[in-house]
Amino acid sequence: MSTLFIGQNKVFLPETLSTNSYAIELLKKVNAIEGTVVYTYKQTQGKGQRGNGWIAEPQRNTTLSLILKPGFLNSKNIFYLSKITALALYDVLTEILNDSQFDIKIKWPNDILVNSKKIAGVLIENSILNEVVQWSVIGVGINVNQKDFGGINIATSLNLLSGKEYDLELIMELLFDHFEKWFLRLMKSDLKLIDDTYLKLLFKLDELSEFEQNNTRFKAKVVGVDESGLLVLEMENKSQKSFDIKDVQFIF
Ligand code: BTN
Predict the structure, then answer these.
(1) Which is the closest atom of ligand 1 to the Cα of 19?
(2) Would the pTM of this model clear 0.85, i.e. be above it?
(3) Is 208-251 in the same CATH topology as 10-200?
């Protein structure tokens, strides 16, 4: 293992409701150090984005939360945490699925898709005081050895893609390496590299796609993500509009 601080302090839980909730409790109770990872192979009430759950078959998937204290980050730049997490996951999956048949993309804001199916999700919870990020809990779920998603045809796993079984610990270590690399770039304010790489990997960039807002579907083109993390769409009348994750859903 070659990281300086990410994953140097590990908390393994044989079973827990949510690694994110446990990590937040740790921060509040014992002020856990930066880089601490909380992980389990049996998460029973995993939290997802938009108030959804995250279901992961026990012993077959990676479910972890990283504790960060990015005091250098102004809250207006908080979306960079989403970007670097997605980029780290992209690098992990690219290293494992090293084959051109696999098209790996970042679906705004930070889902990872392989061949248009979701393989990993991210839920980031933060504490912000006077515009400074006090702490962040980066929750990551990766579908690893799970073969059956109960008919959910938009999900996939490493095993379904490659037919191989993976060591969950090794995947976690790979994520620590790649996450730390991107986090150090963020610390050095290498924002252009982060922005350019993220944009290049965006799912359906410059393609006409379908979206839903308030139960109404519309077609638009993804043209970028603005500095506060809003998705910028070019509408059919060629005007540009920015959307929050709460307001718009990708139909794919
Ligand atoms: C999503 O795509 O909706 C986000 C899913 C995030 C799931 C991970 S699993 C580990 C961590 N603990 C949680 O309760 N959620 C995140």
Answers:
(1) 12
(2) yes
(3) no
CATH number (2.30.30.100, 3.50.50.60, 3.30.1360.120, 3.30.1490.270) of 208-251 reads 2.30.30.100
Distance 81 CA to ligand 1 centre (A): 15
Q: Which residue's C-alpha comes closest to atom 15 of ligand 1?
A: 47
Tell how far the Cα of 197 is from the centroid of ligand 1, in angstroms. Answer: 23
Mean pLDDT by 10 residues, the chain (252 residues): 91 98 97 96 96 95 98 95 98 95 95 97 96 96 96 91 97 98 97 96 95 94 94 95 91 82
Nearest CA to ligand 1 atom 11: 139
Q: Which atom of ligand 1 is least distant from the CA of 20? A: 12
Q: 109 CB less than 6 Å from ligand 1?
A: no
123: Cβ below 6 Å to ligand 1? yes
Of 123, 171, 172, 250, the residue with max ligand 1 atoms within 8 A of its CB, to mutate for a pocket test, comes to 123
Whole-number Å distance between alpha carbons of 7 and 55: 24
